[in-house]
Design goal:
four-stranded antiparallel β-sheet
């Protein structure tokens, strides 16, 4: 079990394997070796909190169609920087308490990027942070809270209520919102997000010199490649060598790959040069709209190059350009392995919007709307129905799962969402990851490994008493969150937190809260939380920006949570 646990943590931190594969492999290994019996393995995948999370994510698809997000997004981006930051944080936080925060961030990114003269880089990261903070206001605000609840259900203990997170989360939200407005916003870089010349210079486009091209044997200057409007030749890739910078006297050879920097909207200039061709042959697509997307953390493209992923046939689109944070992309697009958070410019074909795999792979941030919004009154009905279901469940009239399931069936019956849309949005990967994590947690407890690690935590932090052990659980969860993502961190630390509480003979609920709040304390890197990744490239951020702007928020959040949790949930 120790070897399995070490393998999981090592794979999550150091490998590019998706959590789906890692948790599925380890739980299969534990089942085959007899550590987890079949009955225990199977029940993990029908855990009540997990089923509630699945239905909630499906309902989010209908809620995203309402006009609420698009209307409010336009309202919050008016005024001065501080007032915009405050309204933006308040709206995104409160909305994220009830909706999937990924959807909230995606809906607000577009309007922020379109504001003329707006220093959007001062807004996008605070938007992500506020959505994370807002998720801690309710039980359903973030998947992490429901995952922790699923572990509590598995342990046969009393689950958290809908508002059990509200007092601690509310105080932390208010304090951190003020930090975002008056401190973090000032520490972020000033990058305009509209397509200015300065902004688009971070995009890179590439073309191959075709066989028999008239460019062959002539220099860069002779071919006029130094005089392209809004485009600049930055690299020539020749076999395995990269020529950079490219001088005007450099002679072009057959099959050279020319890498240009500049405005993707000027890509038509390259199409007019005889003897240059795209690796994806998207000349027929380039006349259509250019669309900007961010690669989703759940995308099947992760770790693959554009060529390996069969991008053109899969999406009826071709990659024109790519940007990754503020990083310089070396070696050209053909050799680039796609990562979560990469911003791509796509030349789309007529079938692009009809593809059923867009939501899983991309967040569309500009150029085309791939969904149809509901009208005003249907939107009011959807929001009213959702709040009614939440209210009935919160006061104990009916369980959350039953209330949300009935509402989802009603929305299907009213044709507000189709079964095909639900099938495309169904979170298969999340179910397999959480089911596997529940199995791993059970094995850690049953084999005594959780107790051994708890003893180690107590050995390090226990000299400060139960309060020190409690802080240790929070710190360990936070560290893992920054390294392996929030949901995986919660899954790994929960059984340890339970064992720590048992060894001290105190209530485990402060420790459970420490796991939940620690798992959402992702403010120092783009990789711990998916909304941080979503804004990484769009905001042209660097890791340094996350450290500078996130540190004050992390300190305020952590101190508030650590002090407040034992007050609301005594030992």
């Amino acid at each position: 079990m120790i070897i399995s646990l070490a393998g999981v943590i090592g794979a999550l931190i150091f490998s590019r394997l998706r959590p789906l594969i890692i948790f599925s492999v380890v739980v299969t290994f534990l089942y085959v070796t007899g550590v987890i019996p079949f009955e225990e393995l199977s029940i993990n995948y029908v855990n009540s909190s997990l089923l509630t999370l699945v239905v909630l994510l499906l309902l989010s698809l209908v809620l995203e169609k309402t006009v609420l997000l698009s209307y409010m997004a336009r309202q919050v981006v008016q005024g001065g920087l501080k007032s915009i930051l405050f309204r933006l944080g308040l709206f995104s936080g409160i909305t994220s308490a009830f909706l999937n925060n990924t959807a909230v961030v995606a809906a607000l990114m577009g309007p922020l990027r379109k504001q003329s003269g707006m220093l959007g880089s001062k807004l996008l990261l605070p938007l992500s942070y506020a959505s994370i903070l807002g998720g801690m206001l309710t039980l359903i605000g973030t998947s992490t809270n429901l995952i922790v609840n699923s572990f509590i259900d598995q342990a046969g203990m009393q689950s958290f209520g809908f508002l059990d997170f509200t007092v601690v989360g509310g105080v932390a939200f208010v304090i951190c919102l003020l930090v975002l407005v008056f401190v973090s916003g000032r520490l972020l870089p000033s990058h305009p997000l509209q397509n200015s010349d300065a902004d688009v210079s971070e995009y890179f486009l590439e073309r191959i010199v075709s066989i028999g091209s008239p460019l062959i044997g002539r220099s860069v200057a002779e071919n006029g490649l130094r005089n392209l409007e809004k485009l600049y030749l930055v690299d020539v890739i020749r076999e395995d060598a990269v020529i950079s910078p490219v001088g005007p006297e450099e002679v072009i050879k057959e099959r050279d790959i020319l890498v240009f920097s500049g405005d993707p909207g000027a890509v038509f200039l390259l199409e007019e040069i005889e003897g240059l061709e795209s690796q994806e042959n998207h000349q027929d697509l380039i006349r259509h709209n250019l669309v900007e997307v961010v690669v989703s953390p759940s995308s099947i493209l992760l770790g693959r190059t554009v060529k390996e992923s069969d991008f053109r046939s899969r999406f009826d689109a071709a990659v024109v350009a790519v940007r990754r944070g503020e990083s310089r992309i070396e070696g050209g697009l053909g050799r680039l392995e796609l990562r979560a958070g990469d911003e791509l410019v796509l030349a789309i074909g007529p079938d692009f919007k009809a593809r059923d795999n867009l939501a899983r792979n991309f967040v569309i941030v500009g150029g085309v709307e791939n969904r149809t919004l509901l009208g005003l009154w249907p939107s009011v009905g959807v929001i009213g129905g959702f709040l009614t279901a939440i209210g009935l469940a919160a006061v104990g009239v009916v369980s959350f799962f039953k209330a949300l399931l009935v509402l989802l069936v009603l929305f299907v019956a009213l044709k507000l969402v189709t079964l095909d849309e639900l099938r495309r949005r169904f979170p298969f990967e999340l179910v397999l990851v959480i089911g596997g994590a529940l199995g791993l947690a059970h094995a850690m407890v049953s084999t005594g490994v959780a107790a051994d690690i708890a003893s180690l935590v107590n050995g390090v932090f226990g000299s400060f008493g139960v309060y020190g052990a409690y802080i240790g659980v929070f710190v360990v969860t936070w560290l893992l969150t920054e390294l392996v993502t929030n949901n995986a961190a919660a899954a790994l630390v929960f059984p340890i937190a339970l064992s720590v509480a048992q060894q001290w003979g105190v209530s485990p609920y402060p420790f459970f809260m420490a796991v939940a709040f620690g798992a959402s304390a992702s403010f120092l890197s783009p990789y711990g939380y998916q909304t941080n990744l979503m804004v990484f490239s769009v905001g042209r951020y660097s890791i340094r920006d996350y450290l500078r702007a996130g540190a004050p928020v992390l300190v305020a959040y952590s101190v508030t949570a650590v002090l407040m949790i034992p007050v609301v949930f005594p030992f």
